[in-house]
Specification:
The protein is mostly helical. 54% of the residues lie in helices and 0% in strands. The protein has 3 helices and no strands. The longest helix has 22 residues.
Length: 95
């Protein structure tokens, strides 16, 4: 059985192979190709810079997040509504 592929199907079939080839070429760093990251770092030596990194970490507790406050408020309203409905005198007296 012989299958004929259209030009578009052939190009689409070759894209993964082309991507693999380009990845191998870039990691190999051969002559005439794009230099790798280590080759680039070796070509341009820069003096070390003084960097001050400040990371501000805040511990936010889960029960102060707006979603949980909303869930808590809805639960409180539901409990109050159930208590009010349960405390009604719903007994019917027929004389």
């Amino acid at each position: 059985m012989h299958f004929q592929l259209s030009r578009t199907q052939r190009v689409v079939a070759l894209v993964p192979l082309l991507m693999l080839f380009l990845t191998l070429v870039q990691t190999a760093g051969g002559p005439g190709f794009a230099p790798t990251a280590t080759a680039w770092a070796q070509q341009s030596p820069n003096p070390p810079a003084d960097v001050d990194v400040t990371i501000k970490t805040e511990k936010e507790v889960w029960y102060l997040q707006p979603v949980w406050l909303g869930i808590g408020a809805a639960a409180l309203i539901l409990i109050i509504a159930l208590l009010v409905a349960g405390s009604r005198n719903t007994t019917t007296v027929i004389k």
